[in-house]
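Task: sequence design from structure.
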């Protein structure tokens, strides 16, 4: 069962154009498996960054309160990559939450449920942007998806970890999180997706077909 933005099918042998792109709602088994694998793999990136971010934080935080939002990008990566690869509703949320669950199960300084809740919110931020652009795999959409995850994650952090912060801190934190999300999740996520597609492992997905069509 599919729902489409237009009744015109994609052009044979190539990726659909924006005017012909359709949203496919039904997940295949391979979609679930690949999204789960991506989430688990990026979850280990989360684990590494849970520890590694503390060093640059001690340098950045004193420069300007709120600037530590520049370090949030790596925690937004799973949703963007999941959305770019699977390109079906729920992909960004699913992949980001799986990565957050890995981080929560192994253990971190924020606790299990808060970590999973943050993953859900961050994934939703990316998901909304991808949905608006009909799950396009273009670079500008990836960057906007990363920025969307950055906005959602920053608002969540301000509500639960920086409650009562003044306007200067909040504005700086949101803006820096958006920049970090756009670059470290959006741009980097797009590059990683393209690199995976180049290996042939995404041949069953639009990301792989699009890359082959460009060659």
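Answer:
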């Amino acid at each position: 069962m599919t729902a489409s933005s237009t009744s015109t099918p994609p052009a044979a042998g190539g990726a659909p154009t924006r005017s012909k792109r359709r949203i496919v709602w039904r997940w295949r088994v391979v979609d679930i498996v690949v999204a789960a694998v991506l989430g688990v793999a990026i979850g280990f990136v989360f684990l590494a960054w849970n520890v590694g971010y503390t060093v640059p934080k001690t340098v950045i935080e004193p420069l300007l309160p709120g600037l530590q939002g520049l370090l949030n990008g790596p925690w937004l990566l799973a949703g963007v990559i999941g959305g770019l690869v699977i390109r079906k509703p729920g992909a960004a949320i699913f992949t980001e939450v799986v990565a957050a669950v890995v981080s929560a199960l192994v253990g971190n300084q924020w606790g299990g449920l808060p970590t999973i809740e943050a993953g859900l919110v961050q994934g939703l931020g990316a998901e909304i942007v991808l949905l608006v652009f009909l799950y396009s795999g273009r670079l500008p959409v990836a960057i906007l998806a990363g920025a969307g995850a950055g906005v959602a994650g920053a608002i969540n952090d301000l509500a639960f970890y920086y409650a009562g912060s003044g306007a200067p801190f909040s504005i700086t934190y949101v803006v820096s999180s958006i920049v970090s999300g756009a670059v470290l999740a959006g741009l980097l996520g797009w590059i990683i997706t393209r690199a995976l597609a180049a290996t042939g492992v995404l041949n069953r997905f639009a990301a792989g077909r699009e890359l082959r069509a460009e060659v």
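Residues 167-199 form the longest helix (33 residues).
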